[in-house]
Amino acid sequence: MEVPRDQLQLLIDNGLYDSAEMLGCFLMSSTTSSVDISPSARAENMVLFADALYGKKEYRRALNVYRTAYHCSKLIPKQSVSGSRNILPTGNRISSTNPIHVSPFNENEVKFKIGLCHMDLHDIRAALTEMEGIPSKLRTLRINLTMGKLYRMTSYDRAALISYKECLRQCPYTLEAIVALADMGVPLKEIQSVLPQAQSKSGRPPSDLEHVRWLHRYAEAQCAVISQDHKGMSEHFNNLLQRFPNNLHILLETAKAEVAVGRNDEALLNFEKARSLDPYNLTGMDEYAMLLRTRADPSELNRLLNDLLLTDPNRPEVWVASAAYWDRRDDKFRALTYAEKSVRVDERHVPGYIIKGNLLLSLNRAEAAVMSFRRAHQLRPDLRSYQGLVRGNLAILRPKDALMAAREALKAMPHSAKALTLVGDVYAHNPDARDKARKFYESALRLEPGYLGAALALADLRSVEGRNAEAIELLEMYLKDWADDSLHTKLAQIYAVISNLDEALSHYSAALRINPDNEAAKKGLERLERQMKGADPDLPEEDEENEEDDAEAEQEETEY
Description:
By secondary structure, this protein is mainly α. It is built from 30 helices and two strands.
């Protein structure tokens, strides 16, 4: 043949896809014009050319050539051979054990490649249809893992479970499969049954089984994350960190798990450690950005976003971080634009839906916010999605749906003060159920005395009931141990209600010294200043100016 096929394969193996596509055009010209070329060689030439196109990310062109090659392969006579030449380029090869009577052309590999093209063109069902045509016994690790992901995207959880289990049978160290099975709520014992057993039955020394024990520990940690078992999660991840110090993946998994149960201070520390280990890592950095957004000093968030944009601007984490940055600058609409972009880049990116839901709530678009939180909840339930569903449903006057979400959170996290507080928040919106709300808040504080969210909610409830002295006493008690701007703001609001304006002014000022960007304190202080001037604090400034102008006009008319 005039065009050496092995040279085209060499270009593809080295990732030189532009050169490979150019040479492939010559190969295809020889293939189509020659009458002497066999159907097998013709099909394999087409597959090589399609590989070059796939490497250039020209997925639709590649799909068309792969299909043509597959149809051409039907003309190949069946031969008795022991195996077939692997036609995948390096990095994309899929090896399979072929039966005795097969075609030299590997149809299963081409079916998988056709499926990959469909997947990259976002036609998930067509991709699955192609891959399901590969006999289950001939599916490699890569095929099974890809199919597991596709099944999850289409909510075929039972089929996904089978694919992920098969991955672990083929390679027990496929950690993606362990995480996916835990995410799907598969019981720990069922996951461990597929892993190599940690108990020695052959009299081997215990040291030979250490590599198996940490794998089981990893599965235990992931299941603890999904069941919101913070104590178990911390124990397992800490054990893994002792065995594998400075492990970036474990630090990030720990931090993300702490975010999921609302332990933000601990999560911040672990994200900081992870970032110091690898400043160019993108995984989990959007979660870190969302936490940094709440800090008074925006400089670290600015640096983080700049680093992420320089590393890879096409990842969803970058757009979530951008949304957090613009939200921090109080440009909600611009922030929402970036949040929406993050979920367009990756439709299964949970932090994108979380920040999008929070932004929609702040823009008084509660129904759209509920849809965003519901999607996040479907993908991976955590405290933030429960909180968003409760707040959103209360805002659109659906207390039953809010209570259902809160109770589901409590069922998932029975030992969580935050989940108890969430149920109390729902009852607090009903004047006839405030006694129930109080009991849940008090239970939350007994379980976790340092949880300020429950203390603030209980103080707010007491103030609404007219028990302002008790509310002040509770908040003053917490202020002895925590210099927190939200405590000062709540105290200022209650003092303003009972017309103790000097104390209100003192606490608003203290809140703004701790956090100059506290919007509630800034608005409260503006209102308080109008009140101290003797003006109506609920009257907008423009109306006040109009009233002053009217008064001056009346005075002038009287003088005239």
